[in-house]
């Protein structure tokens, strides 16, 4: 049976990857993207699907409940996949208000719109909420990965706002009967990743010969998940997940930040050495001037509330829905590096000069 999806934040990193993935898997489906096109939302992320007959784009705010209700009614949408969120921890420290507005108030507005349209008309539906492992707080070095019954202990305004949205979504099932599911994912990487996060920031800095900033001692640990594997996990939840359930989606792939950077530097040095146009395109990069990208690594003061370790226990989604990551970190990172080298016209305009 075909679906008609509203994808919020579908011009952002994970949302746009999901749109590409979903229309590739289900070309008969309808996908409406709703995005406010704030700094991390980029219409160019969706260029490859603009001509798809089932795709349409709406420039708007998830806090605009009337707009969302009209889209659900007029376009006969039966599924919301909610990616839209402010997500950069550093920005949440300097300006938490935007995180409360988008992540909490925005989620509330979507839930109210879904309740007003779907429940009032008894329409079969699904509201899938995309969240983060950061709501669980920080793990000690030898602790098992976060599981779905983990106590919430958010340590930044970003993670606190996402925790609040998770609780709101749950409440709309138990209070009103809205058919909801939630997924909490680990750190994503891959194409169309806005260059403020660790991997795309350092990748583009290597190409421009700029410092690679490392917070503290660089030994903070993250579980890395290729964005396509994340999209595959959401697909499984939409198609077979239990209503009201939460599913943690991870890559089974823990790395310290400093080890990530050393691997990134090593692979970039090798790739730039293989490309005949490297010197003309990236003349400031150490790798094309007899140096090493790792020479750019620079330790900086740790950020406030910096969680030490995240790791996901994905055993529920693996056991119930057959989820397995398809990308190893090495193969996924290699593909990502090639994508950025081949798509300079996408990332170059996004950089702060």
TrEMBL record:
Residues of the NAD(P)-binding domain: 6-335
This protein's UniProt keywords: Lyase, NAD
EC number assigned by the record: 4.2.1.46
InterPro entries named in the record: dTDP_Gluc_deHydtase, NAD(P)-bd_dom, NAD(P)-bd_dom_sf
Pfam family, one: GDP_Man_Dehyd
Catalysed reaction equations from the record: dTDP-alpha-D-glucose = dTDP-4-dehydro-6-deoxy-alpha-D-glucose + H2O
GO molecular function terms listed in the Swiss-Prot or TrEMBL record: dTDP-glucose 4,6-dehydratase activity
Superkingdom classification of source: Bacteria
Top-level enzyme category: lyase
Cofactor: NAD(+)
Family: Belongs to the NAD(P)-dependent epimerase/dehydratase family. dTDP-glucose dehydratase subfamily.
The protein's name in its UniProt record: dTDP-glucose 4,6-dehydratase
